[in-house]
Amino acid sequence: MLPPLLRYAYVLLPILVAPLRSAPARTRIGRFAYVFMMTSFVVALLVPASWGVPMTLAGTAIVTLSFLGSFWQSYAPVWSRGTPRLRG
Prior knowledge:
Blueprint: H1 2-16, H2 28-46, H3 49-80
């Protein structure tokens, strides 16, 4: 449930708080994270639960780290200066 919520936050946040830089370009790491997550979800349906649960957790963790990396690239410079700029 975490990756979809992060996606909504990542899409809606630029409406409220202007990032210092433009949106980061899509990277191979981000694509790998998505493919890994989807593959782990599909494989988790085919293997016993003792293997499936850790696989889904790993896929979710990798995508979460990918989102956090993109978020950091867009917003870290704004926060390092103090107060974020609000769009009005």
